[in-house]
Amino acid sequence: MGYASVFSQIIKHIPRGTFDSIVRKHLGDKGVRTLDCWTWFGALLFGQLTGHDSIRAIERLFAHGQGKLVSLGLGDVRKSTLADANRTRPIAILEDLFKVLLANVERVAPKQHRLRFKGPLFALDTTTIKLCLSLSPWAHLHHNKGGCKIHTAIDLANDLPQFAVITQGNRSDIAIAKKITYFKKGATVIFDKGYVDYTWFNQFNQDGIFFVTRFKDNSQFKVVESRQTNRTQGFLCDQIIYLKSHRGRRYQGKLRRIRYREPDTGRRLTFLTNRFDLTTSTICDIYKARWDVEVFFKTLKQNLRIKKFLGTSENAVKAQIWVALIAYLLVMLLRLLSRSSISMPDAMAVVGSLLLLNASIAVLLGQLPRTTRHPPPSQLRLPFTI
Prior knowledge:
Blueprint: H1 6-11, H2 16-25, H3 37-50, H4 55-64, H5 66-70, H6 79-88, H7 92-108, E1 121-131, E2 146-155, E3 160-168, H8 173-177, E4 188-190, H9 198-206, E5 210-214, E6 221-227, E7 235-243, E8 255-261, E9 268-273, H10 280-288, H11 291-303, H12 314-337, H13 344-353, H14 361-364
Parallel strand pairs: 1-4, 4-5
Antiparallel strand pairs: 1-2, 2-3, 5-9, 6-7, 7-8, 8-9
Helix pairs in contact: 3-4, 3-12, 6-12, 7-12, 12-13
């Protein structure tokens, strides 16, 4: 049985009709003569999956693989036209494409997370991508350094980023978070101490949104109730409190303060939440699950091309990041459809190294055959005579 190329099997999960409608919506191909938005996106996606982070390398790959790419509707790629497209094409095309693809992936993704309670659970965080300030003067970070940030939240049921906001490196994390309207009533959001803002917490509480975060040690509070805890398991206290500081009084209502000692390191952590219905161990497990968003960022940085960029303009950098997020969703979709249990980094490595191979993705992402290792036979004892 013959198979199309791996790249062909991947890109088919982006309906061409849907992509063209997005391009028309944003006038992406208006005045374009040589490199349409489909080829522009295909070139960026090809570079992401193969690990090539230079325009010349992508040009050369398209030239050698043109026979397999023409059938996908992809045209010629030239260094100058791809650079111009990265600088001028509307980023909104890639943002809308990300949303459409995310909805498709979520239809086949798991719906229930591993923790012992019901309801959506999201881990909110930000990662910084360093840039050269002299080449990208728009990307101010701090201390004469350049960079941009990716703000996102991971659904802990399926490790999928629910949105992405790409900003300059000097933008405040909490300022961006307060503008996010994704979280709905009944959801639980996890974040670290960098997001502590009691006005924002109060808005969460009024909207019926739960949160779990770290409690700042210098915060002033009044204990109104102390619940019984099992100190032998590291749960030092479980308290109902009111905040007393000037900023703390911006939060109207009670909060729950839990102090926990890690058994391995002895490190003491203090959590703050507006969930009063869960056990102390569940609250601790919820915050521990925040590590999943760190794993997502690590996977994104180590396996996709968001360290070296094809252009220095804000448009070019954001385009490459959006295509990296789309590539992540595509590989995740392949894993889900093939019911593969291999890790995301392994799946990305397989896909990237065999992109023009004519083979079944389901087979490539399948489990490696198990080999039975037998102990070596006993050493033969030869007769020895003098």
